[in-house]
Amino acid sequence: MTANIGSTARPSHVPVERVVNFDVYDLPGSAEDVQLAYRAFQQSAPAVFWTPHNGGHWVATRAEHIEAIQKDTATFSHQRITLPRLPDAVPRQIPLELDPPEHAPYRRPLMQALLPRVVNAMEAAVRARAVELIEPLVAQGRCEFIDEFAAIFPVSVFLELVNIPQSDRGMLREMAERSVRASDNAVRMSSFEDLGAYLAPIVSARREAPGNDLLSTIVNAEIGGEKIAFDKAISFSMLVMFGGLDTVASMLGFIARFLATHDGVRRQIAARLDDAAFLRHATEELLRRHGVANTARVLTRDVELDGAVLKAGEMILPPNMLVGLDERKVSDPTTVDLSRPFPIHHATFGNGVHTCPGAVLARREIQVFLEEWLRRIPDFRIRAGTRPVMATGMVNGVLKLELEWEAAA
C-alpha cells in the first residue's frame, strides 16, 4: 500500500492508508479466477479505498455499502458509469447514465419488451438455437467454447430480438469488446463512433417504418408525450446493443469454466435436468458466484462512507459481484452450494431503479444452456495443455476457453 502508485496524484483529503493499488483492467490473480481477484481486495483492503488508476477513484468493497450506493441515486449518480471517466462533452448513454426521474420514461419500453411473459414466448426459439449450436459439437469431443457457443448463442438471440442481420455478429462483437474492456478512452470512443455510424441508417429506417422488434420499440418511444429525439434514439440503441452483445456471453464463459473444473457441482446439475425449480436455483447460485458487470458512480455531494470523506464530483466503483461474495451477507461465499437457502443474496444484475432490464432473459438463457448442454455433454473439462484467457474491466469476461470431452460414437 503506497501513496504514489498509478498516474493520478492523491487528493489531500485522501489519507495515505486509504490508497490501494487497484486497477480494474489489471487485477492480480484474475488469470486464475476473476471474481476471487476482486474478493481479494474485499478481504485485504479498507472497506472503502481510493486508487490512483484510471483517473483516480474510490472503490467500495462491502455488500452493505455497495447496495446502499446502488439504491441512492441522489448521492451516487449514474451520470458517468465507465472508468476512466468519459469527457463531459460525450453524450450520456441512455438510459443507464440518467438518474430518476429522468430515466424512467426511457427505461419503461425496454422493461415492457422483456417482461417474463415475453421471454416465455421466446423460450422455444431460444432453446432451438441452443440445440442447433450444441448438436454439431457433441461428436467433435472438443470446442473453443467462446467462439463456438458463448459468443453465438445469446448474441444470435439478441440480434433476432432487434432484427439485425446475423452476418454482422462478428463485427458487432468486436465493437462491444472495445467498449467494455478497453482502459483507453480513445479506444472506447472509437467503438461508440463505429456503432453509432452502423446504427444511424437502421434507426432512421425503423423510425420511418417501425417493425415488431425491440429496436423499433425503443427508437420510437414516447418521452414526455413526444417521440424520442433522434440523437437520444441512437444513444439508447447503442447501450442496448452493447449490453446484448456481451454480458450473457461473458456469464456463460465463467459458468462453463467453473463447471469444467468442478465435477461435483456439474454432475449434481446434470442429474436433475428435469427439475425446473432446482435448475432455477442452480442458475441463481452460479450467477451469484460469477458476477460480470461493473458500473461506476459520480458523487453529487460530499459524503462520509466508512470514515472516508468522498467529495462531490469524484467517482466510486461499487463492484456488483462483491455483494454475493461478502461473507457478511452470504455464508461460505466462494463455494457454489446448490442447496443454499433461497432467496440467494447477490447483486449480479444490480439493485434499485437501475436493475438490469434484461435479467429475465439472461436467466432464461443460462438455464437453457445448462439443460441442453448437460443433456448432451454431461462430462467435460478444460482441454489438456490449455488455460482459459480472462479479462477484467467494466464487464469482466472469458476471452478463450478450450473444452474437451469423450466424443459420442
Automatic annotation (TrEMBL):
Record's keyword terms, sorted: Heme, Iron, Metal-binding, Monooxygenase, Oxidoreductase
Family of the protein in this entry: Belongs to the cytochrome P450 family.
Keyword Transmembrane tagged: no
Organism domain of life: Bacteria
GO-annotated molecular function: heme binding; iron ion binding; monooxygenase activity; oxidoreductase activity, acting on paired donors, with incorporation or reduction of molecular oxygen
Name used for this protein in its record: Cytochrome P450
Pfam families registered for this protein in UniProt: p450
InterPro entries assigned: Cyt_P450, Cyt_P450_B, Cyt_P450_CS, Cyt_P450_sf
Record-linked PANTHER family: P450, PUTATIVE (EUROFUNG)-RELATED
